[in-house]
Amino acid sequence: MQETEPPALISRRSLLVCGGALAVTGGGWWALYRYRPKHDGGQLTVAQAHAQAISGAILLVDIRTPGEWRQTGVPEGAVPLDMRSDDFMESLQSLLVQTENRPVALICAGGVRSARLSRQLLAAGFGQIIDVPEGIYGSAAGPGWLKSNLPVRPWNG
């Protein structure tokens, strides 16, 4: 009697199907990482945002959460304003009055929230809204505030 090899645990077809599914899933996550909604406002790099915030040319608003501010600090020259707070719009409007309606640049962790909020604010009638798509941690738009070694100040609430 001839000896036969034991059956393979995974067939080639199953391996190819699983590999294909993994590639499609990975591609979907990569596209999601790179996706940022387009808006009619401008964009600034983190270095430009820092320089313009320090000079007073723009109002830089960090729209992340208090937990995020506590973890990394707040960019120098930025005003921390949690976009999830119930009084966000009123607080932003108040800041605009205090700063004589300077253009507003929004920064978040990776550029997604700031791009979405920029679109919403422009649609709501706010004037000069600028996105900082690199964010604090960096994104496909660039290295971000921290990796660019720009200064932050601690936030303790």
UniProtKB/TrEMBL annotation:
<dbReference type="InterPro" id="IPR001763">
    <property type="entry name" value="Rhodanese-like_dom"/>
</dbReference>
<keyword id="KW-1133">Transmembrane helix</keyword>
<keyword id="KW-0812">Transmembrane</keyword>
<protein>
    <submittedName>
        <fullName>Rhodanese</fullName>
    </submittedName>
</protein>
<keyword id="KW-0472">Membrane</keyword>
<feature type="domain" description="Rhodanese">
    <location>
        <begin position="54"/>
        <end position="148"/>
    </location>
</feature>
<feature type="transmembrane region" description="Helical">
    <location>
        <begin position="14"/>
        <end position="33"/>
    </location>
</feature>
<dbReference type="InterPro" id="IPR036873">
    <property type="entry name" value="Rhodanese-like_dom_sf"/>
</dbReference>
<dbReference type="Pfam" id="PF00581">
    <property type="entry name" value="Rhodanese"/>
</dbReference>
